[in-house]
Each structure stands twice: as C-alpha cells, then as structure tokens.
Amino acid sequence: MIGQHVFLHSARGADALVSLIDEYLGPMGVTLIVAEVNYNYQYESHPELSDGDLDPAAAGRVADACERHGIRLVPMLNCLGHQSWAETTYALLREHPEFDETPQIPLDNPDIYCRSWCPLHPQVNGVVFDLMDELIEGFRADAFHVGMDEVFLIASEQCERCRGKRPADLFAKAVNDYHAHLVGQRGVEMMIWGDRLIDGRAMLYGSWEASLNDTAEAMTMIPKDIIICDWHYEPRDSYPSVPHFAEDGFRVLVSPWKDVAAAELLVGYAQESAGAGWSGVLFTGWSAGDGGLGLLRALRGEAEEGAGGTGEAAVLRAILPRLVADDGP
Known about the structure:
alpha/beta; eight-stranded parallel β-sheet; TIM Barrel
C-alpha cells in the first residue's frame, strides 16, 4: 500500500482532494487515502456533533475520484484522545461533558495537550459507533482509521470509572471495542496509529512517538488483523518498533511526514527490517491543508517556499516513485 493521509473538513476541501487525486495522487501511484474527518461531517444521527459542511454528496465525490484511480478510501475519526486542540474542545465532549475523562479541567484546556473521552462510559461507544457507521456509508469504505495517537489523559484520577485502572487495560479495551464494531459487525478493516503501543523506555523513543504512560502492553491484548500506522518524523539510526510490530504478527504502514531525510531513513529501515509484515507507507499530511489543498498547490508549483504542503510534496516526490518502481502501484 502507498497511502496519503489528509485532513478533510469541508465540502471545499473535498473538491480540493478530488483535484489532488485526479492530477497527482492517482497518476503517481497512490493506492490508499486516509481522510481524517473527525467532527466535520454532517452527521444525521447526531447533528449536534457536526462542526463542518462536509456532507454525503461531497464524500461521494471523493469516493468517485478514488474509484477512478483504484485508490482505497479510508475515513478517520480520531478516537479516545485528541478531543481538543489548544483552547477549543471538540464537539463530542463539548456536547456530552459526561463522557470526559478529566471533567474538572475547564473547557479552554489550560495546561493540557488534548482531552480524552472515558473508555468506560456506558454510553460513549453507542454515539461513536453511529458516527463511524455514517462515515463508512458516506465514503463507501471497506476500512476505518480510529486514530488513537498521543493519548496522554487516560486512567485519570478525575474519572470515577477509570481511577485506579491500568492504562494498558483501558487502552486495549477501547481498541477491542472499536474492533468488535468495525471488523466484527461492519466487516471492514481497522487501522490505528501505533505510538501508544510502543514502549518508549525499551525502544528509546520520546513520549510523543511512543508511550511513557504505560499503555504499550495493550499491544499484547488486541487482534493482530489491525493495520498499525507507525509514525516517526525524526532521523534515527533505527526504528525498532517497525520490526517489533511485524514480528508480532501485525501489518505495518510506516508513516513519515515532511522531512525528506527522515522519511528516507524510516522507509529504508522498514524495507530492510520488517519483512513480510511491512505493508507499505502512509505519508502524513499534517500541514497539507483541508483536502490536501496546500499539497496540491505545492505539487502544482504554486506554493511559496516553506508554505504548508511543500514539505509533504518534497517527500512524495523523493520517495513515491521508488516505491512504485519497486512494488507496483
């Protein structure tokens, strides 16, 4: 698989993504797009959770473009963590504060990175599964990405349900709940970011790209048919999590960002070390704009040097042709 992750937050972003697919990603040999939608879809089941104008018609246009080029389209809803950013709390915890893992923290989020929902709240999964189902239908998807990166607030003393529980057990329960719904009930594949399943102390990663808050043992408690997207953005001599996941039976997509040297090191290490467990690359687009508009402009040569999307474009140009030549699109 050769994939590109993009934010998709609006109908305008959907049109940009269609152009990106038709002009570049399809012809370049990309075979997978992960579209991170979160709460920007017009959810019919829970309209109070809709913060954008992305609707089924716009999702259908993206799905049509992917079908034209033989690209697998995977919607993403960031689950458990990343329920806020800076001073903004996102729709689920804004509208359902009873789901909050840290209810005593004010909604403008002082002194925290991102909020989490409580994986033990008896009603939260019912709401989240409704959102998943609508995204699967709207994007005509046969796989779903649940996110789950950078979960720092887990097993909080503020949560009456999670207090005193082991973080690894809570994280594994959440993964298994989502797997039971997505794979067991909906019959789609499941993808997840890998950082919380990596023991940062053992593998000498930092607290962002690996777990230092005791969630890593969850890797031993979850199904092996989950596709793990193992992201690393800094140059290193080795990336031991890649063969670790592969040797444990998982399929692995390594996930670089916008640094060409770091991306080449990560992809090269995966090719050499992961064997049959290496399933390919998912390029990430954190600065590529809504629908990859910044990436589109950079590939067209319209973006100023250093603008959002230029780094992602440089990585694609440097690495993607070699992947296509080696493995086919």
